[in-house]
Structure formats: C-alpha cells, structure tokens
Design brief:
The chain is an all-alpha fold. 77% of the residues lie in helices and 2% in strands. It has a domain of 213 residues. It has a two-stranded antiparallel sheet with strand order 1-2. Helix 12 runs parallel beside helix 18. The two termini are 25 Å apart.
Length: 499
C-alpha cells in the first residue's frame, strides 16, 4: 500500500475515526447537545477531503485515482455519490437533533452508527472489486439494522429484525451470485471480469457464454434488488420505514438507495458492459422498473400512515430510476456519457433533495403531534404554514410537476427511454406518475382543506431542523427552475463511469 491509497480513502477514514472519537468523548463529556455538532463537523471534514480529491482529478487531468491493489477507485462518478451521501447524512443529523430525545442515553451511539453507515455507502460507490463491494454493503447495512431498533418499542424492534434477517438473506443470495461469476471468470475485479466475458462471448457466440453465468447474474440482480427495494425484493421496505426512527427512514430512502444504484451502475456498466450484455440486462431492468412503479404506486394509495405511504412511494421511485438503467444504447448529444446513467444520477440528486424535504417536515410535525397518520396532518396549513408549503412542494416534486426538480428528472429519464426504443416503458412511467398524484395530493388536501383536529395551536420546530428543511426546499425549487448545474454534474460523473 502507498500513501496515495490512504489519500484516496481519506473521506471514509476521517468519518470512521471521528465516529470512534465521538463514542469515546461521550464517556467524559456531559453536554450531549454537542454530539450533533461533532457529527456535522465529521461530515464537513469528509466533505472537504472529497472536494480535495475532485480538485486533484481536475488539476492533474486524471480520469481516476486507483488504490488498494485496484479494489477502489476515485473518479468523478464515485465522488458525485460521496457528495450526495454526505449531504443526505448532514440533513439527517440536523433533523435528528430534537428527535434523539426519545433515546437520549444512546445519542452518541446513534450518531456514530449514522457515520459508520455513511462511510460504508461512500466505500460502495468507489469499490471496483466484488469482495470490496460485499464488505462495503455489510458496513452499510449492519449499522442501519441497529439504528432501526433505537426506539426500542415493538414496532421498531420488529422492523430491525425484518431488516436484519432479510438483509442477511439478500447478502447470501448476492454472495452466491458473486461466487458463480468468480468461478466462471476467475477474477473478482470488474475490469478483468469484463475482459474475460468479452473473450467468452467471442468464442461461444453467446453473450452469456454459460447458463451458470446467467444464473449468477440473476442472483446478483436479486441481491441488489433488495438494497434498492425493487419489486419483487421490496417486502421489507414498508414495515422498516414505518417502524424505524423517522430520520433513519429518511436516511434509508435517500442515501442507502443512492449507494445501491451507484454499485449497480458500476457493476453493470463495467463488468457486464453494454457491448456484452446490454440487451439482456436492459430488458431485465425494464421489466423490474415497470413492476416496481406499478405495485409501489397502487399499494401506496391504500396507506394511512405517511411513513408507510412513502415506503411504497420509494418502491415506485426505484422503478422510475431503473428506467435509466434500462436505457443503455444512446449517447447524449455532445457528450460521451450515456443518457441512461446521466438520467439516473440526475434523478437521484433531485430525489434526494425532494424526499429529504418531505421527511424533514414530517419529523418536525410528528414530533409535535406524536402521530404519523396522514389524517392527523389536518389543518397544518394554518398551524404550520411554512412546513405545510414545503411538504406540499415535496409532494408535487415527487409527482413530477413543474417548477420542481422532480419534473426535470422524469423528463430526462423518460426521454432516455424513448431515445432507446423503450417507448412502452416511458408510457408506463407517465401513467404511474398520474396514478401517484392521488396519494401525494391527498397529503396536500388534508393539510389545506381539512379542519385541524387539535385546535389551531402553532407547530414549532427547533433551528437545526428548520435549516435542513430550508436547505432541501431551496434545492428542490432551485434545481426545478435551473437544473443545469445538477445536470452538468451528473453528465460529468456519468462520463467518468463510461470512460
């Protein structure tokens, strides 16, 4: 190992080291209110180191930095996801400052686990070798399983057990698929796997070369399908979303999903690249996309708990994002990046801002009314007009209505589908967007048209969560009016993946 290896891994190392220091400081520091500030400091340090890596790539005209014997890469694709994950983690920490009073004795452990999981997600975006990918997944999942149980009631414990058991099963399925791919190719490196699959394809005349390899790829898709809560691997999401602490639900819906799509893009655009398996896995993701959109939206209509509703919503959102995975054939005009991965990255950036805005408002309101039922949000337009307006904008953005970032994200993804002869998938996406308007606008209708059930007492929120709400609200609106900066960043990151 070289010093440059540790420079490449410095954002993750700083998070893990500072998280460990925070747990030790908790033993001697009595002012527990400093813990969120320390967590934010750790995230800022990691963010600064990530920016340094980005500037180093630009200064030296490098496409990527590699380290740890080729198992990790620092390119603009991985750095894009690190920015996204760190930003999401920062919003979750801000939104947790008041919520953690429910488990005050374990606040240090709570924030430390968030940082550990964040480090795992960041590693996942950089991993280019199957063993490293698997270890990063476990570092991501195990802290979340513990965090889901922090409320220590029956529902929270049940959600943690479901997540832990199903995560273990999915990890076993994924690992079995990786073993088959390794047995067929003789390597765990994505680049080497791609080269050997190309040789097998030429010699056998078949893009898979072997039915065993096909089975291994299917198992890997199933394992990753759990991580992004895609149908038919979605069964855990609604229960875990409902029972977990609400900030952790937000963390799962944004950061964990982003990390899952990061590793899927890297594997299927490098190891199982377009020239070898494009038609086969494009069709697979197209079918999964249509199923996820349809089931997620239809079942969400029946939900009365807003966290459970957003749990099914995130299944539908995974379906929308998979439209980009299926759109693999056409290059963006004037760019080397494919429309598909660019659309995925752009959508994930917009979805992160929108969903975090929604969850931050839900945290602020549910902390005061002690309920997550949609009907209990009645009259919030009078009790908390700013919060109601932000939540309404978030719901509109999730539908895909201008002037929000959700509109441009869907336009770009559905346009990619049309340009790759997946018109039927774009039509399914548009129809599902219309269906989703029913349950998203139901929340808006309850807040603005239903009378308050507990008088018109104002709903207030502490400063940190207000900062998170205003930040995510501004991002949702700004990128809805002027999406160019986020789109250019997504194009740059996607180009690095395909270079």
């Amino acid at each position: 190992m070289k010093v440059n290896d540790f420079f490449l891994l410095s954002p993750e190392i700083s998070l893990v080291v500072l998280a460990g220091i925070m747990v030790l400081l908790d033993l001697v520091v009595k002012r527990k209110g400093l813990l969120p500030a320390f967590s934010l400091m750790a995230l800022v340090v990691s963010l600064i180191l990530t920016v340094v890596l980005w500037l180093d790539l630009d200064a030296n005209n490098n496409n990527a930095l590699t380290g740890f014997f080729g198992s990790l890469v620092g390119d603009k694709f991985s750095l894009f996801f690190k920015f996204l994950i760190l930003s999401a983690a920062a919003m979750v920490v801000l939104a947790s400052t008041d919520y953690t009073r429910k488990f005050e004795r374990f606040r240090a452990e709570y924030y430390a686990l968030v940082l550990f999981s964040t480090a795992g997600m960041m590693l996942l975006a950089s991993a280019t070798e199957l063993i490293t990918i698997y270890l990063s997944l476990e570092l991501t999942a195990l802290p979340i399983a513990a965090l889901a149980a922090f409320l220590r009631d029956n529902r929270s414990t049940e959600s943690a057990m479901k997540f832990l058991i199903l995560s273990a099963i999915s990890s076993a399925v994924l690992l079995y698929g990786m073993v088959i791919v390794y047995g067929f190719t003789g390597s765990t490196s994505l680049d080497v796997i791609a080269a050997r699959l190309a040789d097998f394809s030429l010699s056998s005349g078949s893009p898979f070369g072997s039915q065993a390899l096909l089975f291994g790829i299917v198992l890997m898709i199933a394992g990753f399908g759990f991580k992004i809560s895609s149908v038919p691997f979605h069964m855990w999401a609604p229960d875990v979303y409902e029972g977990s602490p609400t900030p952790i639900t937000a963390f799962l819906s944004v950061a964990s999903k982003a990390a899952g799509f990061a590793v899927i893009l890297r594997i299927f655009y490098i190891a199982f690249s377009q020239d070898i398996l494009s038609v086969e896995w494009s069709i697979t993701f197209a079918v999964l996309s249509a199923l996820s959109m349809t089931l997620g939206n239809l079942v969400a209509i029946r939900q009365n708990n807003i966290k459970r509703m957003l749990g099914y919503s995130t299944i539908a959102q995974a379906g929308y994002i998979m439209v980009g995975l299926a759109a693999v054939a056409v290059r963006a005009p004037g760019s080397e990046a494919s429309l598909g991965p660019t659309g995925v990255l752009f959508y994930l950036g917009g979805y992160a801002a929108t969903n975090l805005a929604a969850f931050c408002v839900i945290i602020a309101i549910s902390n005061r009314i002690n309920s997550d039922e949609i009907d209990d949000f009645a009259g919030m337009a009078r009790r908390a007009p700013v919060l109601a307006a932000v939540l309404a904008l978030a719901m509109i953005s999730l539908i895909g209505v201008p002037p929000t970032v959700g509109f441009w994200a869907k336009v770009y993804l559905f346009g990619a589908a049309i340009n790759t002869d997946l018109v039927w998938l774009a039509v399914v996406g548009v129809i599902n967007s219309v269906v989703s308007a029913y349950y998203y606008l139901r929340v808006v209708k309850v807040m603005y048209l239903n009378p308050p059930q507990a008088g018109e007492t104002a709903v207030t929120s502490p400063l940190p969560i207000r900062v998170a709400i205003m930040t995510t609200f501004a991002a949702t609106l700004f990128f809805g009016i002027y999406p160019t900066p986020l789109l250019n960043l997504a194009r740059s990151a996607a180009a690095a993946l395909l270079s």
